[in-house]
Design goal:
single chain, 107 residues, mainly alpha, 2 domains, 5 helices, rod-shaped
Length: 107
């Protein structure tokens, strides 16, 4: 099969292997950074070497906790309205909207 007729996936297959040497401390740092970025060490090093943005890793537990806080705030808004406290409801609603904006920014 000639180079022109090979499928696109075969053309992009990584076939070049190069090694690098690290001290144990350096390698531990690479592993920590890769984990924080949600990548394998190999992919992390490739991204950094090629200047590919790493992006932001979303902490699912933090998003869940913020969502629960939003549910509680929403319940507080409803309770304030039912109990005739529109000023409290308005303030809590404002905080709830800020929380929703932050959550949208994370996702």
């Amino acid at each position: 099969m000639s180079e022109k007729t090979k499928p696109a996936a075969a053309k992009n297959h990584r076939t070049v292997i190069r090694s690098s040497r690290f001290t144990p401390a350096e390698w531990a740092s690479v592993q920590e950074r890769a984990e924080a970025a949600g990548l394998s060490p190999s992919r992390y090093l490739r991204h950094v070497a090629l200047g590919v943005p790493l992006g932001r890793r979303i902490n699912a537990e933090a998003v869940l906790a913020l969502n629960r806080a939003g549910v509680n705030l929403n319940n507080l808004v409803k309770l304030s309205i039912r109990n005739g406290q529109p000023l409290v409801a308005a303030e809590v609603h404002e905080v709830l909207e800020q929380l929703r904006d932050r959550l949208r920014g994370l996702l």
